[in-house]
Specification:
The structure is a single chain. This protein is of the alpha+beta class. The chain folds into 2 domains: 51 residues, no CATH class; 171 residues, D-amino Acid Aminotransferase, Chain A, domain 2. It has 5 helices and 13 strands. The longest helix has 13 residues. Bound molecules: pyridoxal-5'-phosphate.
Length: 250
């Protein structure tokens, strides 16, 4: 068996020929998250190992809680109708890394994934997306794209929909949002906030979107924002500071 180790810092190491045998890898190794059976064929797995590792997470982005910048371009498509974008599957993520690097080349941190000729806004990097604005009808609205097969049905997304729905202070809905809706809303000063949602960061405010050569500045306030209120309410539930039917004491 020939093995050659590679790392970003060290490049390719010395090739080694050794007897065929098992490999030893870290339980957090990305490759392990999807299948384990020893087989070279493309087929349904015949063996699986479910295991859970727990760890604290630090700040998800190197900028901490600062708003993230997004590169919005229809060049790469994360997910499509009839595909697997609504599943947490390894294949969805490998390809997205290339686009992520291009976003960095454009001076942005994450990709804002668009879909279709009308440039529907779907997700941010590996987060669901929320827009808090005054909609076309003048209603105060918290909106996220509907689960139509191309959106990952995130647990944080669902939690935010249910939490904000209970407040009964604003319209909470699942609806399509396009880049032209966003641009128009910004022009008319109707956009209040935009943020991503996911387990690691809970909520992550968006500060800027680079789209068709134009930097769209998204309003952002550090304090008293809807995003920070949602962050507090959700983490209070997670840490047991607020009783909730979503958690129970162990
Ligand atoms: C994991 C993930 C999310 C967030 O899901 P959570 O269950 O809230 O962590 C959103 N979009 C994509 C593409 C994801 O991979």
């Amino acid at each position: 068996m020939l093995t050659v180790e590679w790392s970003y810092q060290g490049g390719w190491q010395r090739p080694r020929i050794q007897p065929f045998g098992n490999l030893s890898i870290h339980p957090a190794c990305s490759a392990l998250h999807y299948a384990i059976q020893p087989s070279l064929g493309v087929k349904k797995p015949s063996q699986a190992l479910l295991y859970v590792i727990l760890s604290p997470v630090g700040s998800y982005f190197t900028t901490g809680a600062k708003p993230v910048s997004l590169w919005a371009d229809s060049k790469y498509i994360r997910s499509w109708k009839g595909g697997t974008g609504d599943c947490k599957m390894g294949g969805n993520y490998g390809a997205s890394i290339f686009a992520q690097y291009e976003a960095v080349d454009y001076g942005c941190q994450q990709v804002l994934w668009l879909y279709g000729d009308d440039h529907q806004i779907t997700e941010v990097g590996t987060m669901n997306l929320f827009l808090y604005w005054t909609n076309e009808k003048g209603e105060e609205e918290l909106a996220t794209p509907p689960l139509d097969g191309i959106i990952l049905p995130g647990i944080t997304r669902q939690s935010i929909l249910e939490l904000a729905g209970k407040w009964k202070e604003l319209k909470v809905c699942e609806r399509y949002l396009t880049m032209s809706d966003l641009r128009c809303g910004l022009k008319e000063n109707r956009v209040k906030e935009m943020f991503g949602s996911g387990t690691a960061c809970v909520v992550s405010p968006v500060g800027r979107v680079l789209y068709q050569g134009e930097n769209l500045q998204i309003p952002y306030q550090q304090e008293n924002s809807l995003a920070s209120r949602l962050l507090k309410e959700l983490t209070d539930i997670q840490y047991g500071r607020t009783p909730s039917e979503w958690s129970f004491l162990v």
